[in-house]
Write a structure and sequence with these properties.
The complex is a heterodimer.
Chain A: H1 5-14, H2 24-38, H3 73-77, E1 83-84, E2 87-88
Chain B: H1 9-17, H2 23-35, E1 43-46, H3 48-63, E2 74-78, H4 105-112, E3 116-121, H5 160-167, E4 173-178, H6 184-190, E5 193-196, E6 216-221, H7 224-234, E7 264-268, H8 278-293, E8 297-301, H9 309-324, H10 345-356, H11 359-372, H12 377-400, E9 405-409, H13 426-430, H14 437-442, E10 446-453, E11 459-466, H15 471-485
Classes of the chains: A mainly alpha, B alpha/beta.
Chain lengths: ~100, ~500
């Protein structure tokens, strides 16, 4: 599997990272190096092997479904690059 | 007492309890050492006011005879841990200015145990790196040098600032985190001890996430005893982390008898890599002899899927990272790019992430995005998770034959020079983790113990891998190895 510049551009778009056009060839090359390394996994016989979901066998803990936290609006907004009137502010999303 | 900053946790604790020094004196000695070591770029946010306030409180508790395990002991905290009101950037520009409103469970546990926080330590950005060269703060620099050669060396990564600070006696110990070797590799490079506990031993709550199924916190210290003391203070069940194990925490220090008679130590043949330097091979053989002389039985073992650990890791870790790092969108915290007229929310995301993430982080997020994308999820991500199952089974099979611990080299080489790997392809850097990454994939505890010097005078470490949840037994075996190796070298002070 070889990654071309169009695929590199698509991946950058999916990852929401702006990559300039002239940086795409080098990026595609790096992807190909890393994916070439990963290709070794195809040598392994994984028939009938379950994909790991949890490295430590455990049943996730449960708790009563009730509110345990909240009323921290000021704390939650304290690190926002732009907060107004108790909300996070972002550029216009809907025309 | 002089040179208080050179003490370890156990000796400082004992001196405090005998009234031979105070927590404030210890803390001041460390703060002075830190101020004189800016050349190492290890401490990136200093917190002297917090340190002196906590030290005074610790002295009061010591006076009152109410001193918990780490009372008055000054330590550094890796920048990956969120600390209330103190910058916590994970070594990234994208978290510039972020001041957490909360405290990570591990750093809170340490504070509750009386530990004194001196400041935050340099690290690779989002813990992605093996040389501390991807940090937004610039490189952390090892206190070690190749003889009289002034070339700057890496302290390793990602916990490079922690390793440099402990090795240079800027603090008594430090926290680290380990996703593929980020505690054990820097410990090996700097002649310090680092343990990654079993996955689930330390709460991950409040630690900036890299790859959630692999990340674990652990101590970086000057001795195995110190590691036992500090690990005990860091771990324990936390309802805020659903993967935190609800298991009692044993008294690890009390388990350090140094007696390993009859223990079975496995030597995995697959770790004998082509092109392994002779010095590493000899160190490994010497380590096995030391354990044998201490009464252990040495057995050859096989971990057949070892070769596939790194490629599996470089699917799973970027995949999880791409998901975890999606939260850095310029909306809720940290950096937001300046937008051009007419830019909408997509441009805000894309410009913010391009400016805020460094090159290695961008690369891993994009690789992770690719392996999780439609059409490739099965071929890459699911295949890697199947291989991970096989890697874990390799260890289970070996432990089922009665093996108590596994001895391996910690790293394929001694520390390299900063900038020496710049022109290498990324895979060359990834190979640093070849001996450590299997342990994260299998969720096991692993410890790096300094065991010797190479011909250039740089530290080399050996790794011991233990059974799940048996950190106490693992620390005891490490203690026996430490006693036999008798590593006492320290870097000469040039900074």
């Amino acid at each position: 599997m070889s990654i071309d510049q169009n695929t590199a551009a698509r991946v950058a778009k999916l990852a929401r990272i702006k990559v300039e056009q002239d940086a795409l060839p080098a990026l595609a090359d790096e992807f190909n190096t890393i994916l070439g390394f990963i290709e070794q996994l195809n040598e392994v016989d994984v028939d009938g092997v379950e994909p790991m979901t949890s490295v430590t066998p455990q049943r996730l803990k449960r708790r009563v479904d009730e509110v345990t936290d909240g009323n921290q609006q000021a704390k939650i907004l304290s690190n926002a690059p732009d907060a107004r009137e108790g909300f996070f502010a972002v550029p216009k999303v809907v025309e | 007492m002089s040179d208080l900053n050179k003490l370890g946790l156990a000796s400082a604790r004992d001196a405090l309890r005998k009234g031979e020094t105070t927590a404030v004196e210890l803390t001041q000695a460390c703060l002075t050492a830190i101020d004189g070591a800016d050349a190492l770029n290890a401490f990136v946010h200093k917190t002297p006011e917090i340190a002196l306030e906590r030290a005074a409180a610790a002295d009061a508790r010591l006076q009152a005879g109410d001193a918990p395990a780490m009372c008055g002991l000054p330590i550094g905290i890796k920048d990956l841990f969120c600390t209330r009101g103190v910058p916590s950037q994970a070594g990234s520009r994208i978290l510039q200015g972020f001041l957490p409103e909360y405290e990570s469970t591990v750093s809170q546990n340490l504070a509750d145990a009386g530990a004194v926080m001196l400041g935050k330590l340099n690290m690779d950005e989002f813990a992605m790196g093996s040389s501390n060269e991807t940090s937004t703060y610039g490189n952390a620099i090892s206190p070690w040098r190749r003889g009289n050669d002034a070339a700057e060396l890496t302290p390793g990564g990602s916990s490079g600032g922690s390793a440099a600070a402990v090795a240079a006696d800027l603090c008594l110990a430090a926290t680290g985190t380990d996703t593929g070797g980020s505690i054990r590799q820097p410990a090996a490079f700097t002649g310090t001890v680092g343990i990654k506990p079993t996955y689930g031993r330390c709460s991950r709550w409040g630690i900036v996430a890299f790859a959630s199924s692999l990340d674990q916190a652990g101590p970086m210290t000057k001795s195995v005893r110190d590691a036992a003391i500090m690990l005990g203070a860091m771990c324990g069940h936390d309802p805020k982390d659903s993967t935190s194990a609800d298991l009692a925490v044993p008294d690890f220090e009390a388990m350090l008898s140094g007696d390993i008679k009859g223990k079975k130590i496995g030597i995995p043949r697959e770790y004998r890599m082509d092109g392994m330097p002779g010095e590493i091979e000899k160190l490994w053989a010497d380590g096995a002899d030391m354990l044998k002389d201490a009464g252990a039985e040495i057995v050859d073992i096989s971990l057949p899927h070892t070769k596939y650990a790194l490629p599996a890791y470089y699917v799973i870790a970027p995949a999880e990272a791409s998901s975890n790092l999606a939260r850095y969108d310029g909306v809720r915290y940290g950096h937001r790019a300046t937008l051009a007229h007419g830019d909408g929310i997509t441009e805000m995301y894309e410009k913010t992430r391009a400016e805020g993430f460094g090159h290695e982080v961008q690369r891993r997020v994009m690789v992770g995005t690719y392996v999780l994308s439609a059409g490739f999820y099965d071929a890459y991500y699911n295949r890697a998770r199947r291989v991970r199952t096989l890697i874990k089974k390799d260890f289970e099979d070996v432990f089922a034959t009665g093996v108590d611990a596994i001895l391996t080299p910690a790293t394929p080489s001694a520390a390299f020079g900063l900038g020496e790997m710049t022109d290498a392809d990324p895979v060359q850097m990834y190979l640093n983790d070849v001996f450590t990454v299997t342990v994260n994939l299998a969720g096991l505890p692993g410890i790096s113990v300094p065991a010797g010097l190479d011909k250039q005078g740089l530290p080399l470490g050996l790794q011991l891998i233990g059974r799940p949840w048996e950190e106490g037994d693992l620390l005891n075996t490490a203690h026996a190895l430490e006693n036999a190796a008798g590593f006492v070298a320290k870097p000469g002070k040039w900074w």
